[in-house]
Amino acid sequence: MEEFEAFLNDGGIVEAPDDMPDEYRDAVFTFIEMHANSELMGGLTERDWIPKTPGLRHKMSVVAKTQDEIGHGHLLYMVAADMGVKTRTEMLEDLFDGKSRFHNVFHYQAKTWGDQVAIAFLVDAAALASQQAVFKNCSYGPYRRILKRIISEEGFHMRLGEDRMMRIANGSQVQRDLFQDAINRWFWPSLQLFGPDSKPNDKLLRWHIKSERNEVLRDAWVQKFVPLLQSYGFTIPAPDMKFDETTNRWDVGPIDWEPLKATLAQGGPDSARRISEALSNWQQTAWVREALDAPAPEIAAMT
Ligand SMILES: [Fe+2]
Ligand SMILES: [Fe+2]
Questions:
Q1: Ligand 1 centre and the CA of 244: distance in Å?
Q2: Which residues have their alpha-adjacent CB atom under 5 A from ion ligand 2?
Q3: Centre of ligand 2 from the C-alpha of residue 235, in Å
Q4: Beta-carbon neighbour count of residue 10 at 10 Å?
Q5: Where in the chain are the domains?
């Protein structure tokens, strides 16, 4: 392990067929698996909104975003499967059995169009910041290369979120109220996407998977989004929030981590429905996988 860590500290990049300590393999695999699960669950949320999205312009962007997120899931499951810990099918079965994790924000329900705007504006920006921090210095080569592609598409999602936000902010009072209501429900889950403060000896930092501590990324998000939302006349649902004149920084006050813990144990407000919907989507699309796997004569017979 000492030798391996020296290799990583020298900027060494690990490839799938390389020898690596089991601890490193397991930690990196679990991290990528959670990312893959989150892309899939995010894509399914987006898909739910295709029929409900107002207007053709927004609808086209939701269709494109759904394709992007499901595509990110595919790429990441492929990278994770190449690590030889679990197959893609085993990862999906674990997801449907509630045995593996996905990000906290996908344990909540997007109830209104305002929620969809808040997700694209606040959540996609938080996810992009986390992914950029991994891409910056990631020691696992296949993940780093796939992240380059994912990040470029997530950049579009962030711009889409800004566009949606500006449209709703410049809309009618009904639209502004809808968005304020969404901010009230999504501000804290979005902030908690970064996770609690990193432990002093976080293995993912030591092994150059993450390049930045959770609290640093979280604070950068706060410093960007609090003044931005306020500049459009919206309020932040943080009663103890303060502005420190000496440092010029916002402090959102104490963070209640209980909702995050609940989502990690699959006990979030919408976890059960989300997981069962993902499973039924998988079952309903079984015929596509069977058709693709079928030998050529059977495909001919089906058509
Ligand atoms: Fe994505
Ligand atoms: Fe995204």
A1: 34
A2: 124, 154, 157
A3: 25
A4: 7
A5: 2-302
pLDDT in tens, 1-53: 899 999 999 999 999 999 999 999 999 999 999 999 999 999 999 999 999 99
Number of H helices, E strands in the chain: 14, 2
Ligand 2 centroid from CA 160, angstroms: 10
- Cα separation, 102 vs 246, in Å, equals 38
CATH 3.40.630.30 fits 2-302, yes or no: no
Query: Percent of the chain having pLDDT more than 70?
Result: 98
CA–centroid distance, residue 4 to ligand 2 (Å): 34
Q: What token pair was written down for 37?
A: 């699960």
- pLDDT by residue (tens digit) across 171-180? 999 999 999 9
d(CA 143, CA 260): 26
Residue type, position 299, single letter: I
Q: How far is the CA of 72 from the centre of ligand 1 (A)?
A: 5
Q: What share of the chain is helix, strand, coil (3-state, %, to 5)?
A: 65, 5, 30
Calpha distance 198→177 (Å, rounded):
36
Residue 248 CA, ligand 1 centroid: distance in Å: 32
Instruction: Quote the ligand 1 centre to 68 CA distance (angstroms).
Output: 6
Contact (CB, 8 A) for 134 and 146: no
Shortest CA distance to 161 belongs to which of 114, 107, 214, 112? 114
Of all ligands present, the nearest one to the C-alpha of 158 is: 2
Å from CA of 250 to ligand 1 middle: 28
Closest listed ligand to the CA of 39: 1
Which of 137-176 are b and which e, b meaning 16 or more Cβ less than 10 Å from the residue's Cβ? Answer: ebbbebbbebbeebbebbeebbebbebbbeebbeeeeebb
How far, in Å, from the CA of 219 to the mean position of ligand 1?
Answer: 22
Residue 165 tokens, joined: 């936000």
Q: What's the pLDDT tens digit per position in 120-137?
A: 999 999 999 999 999 999
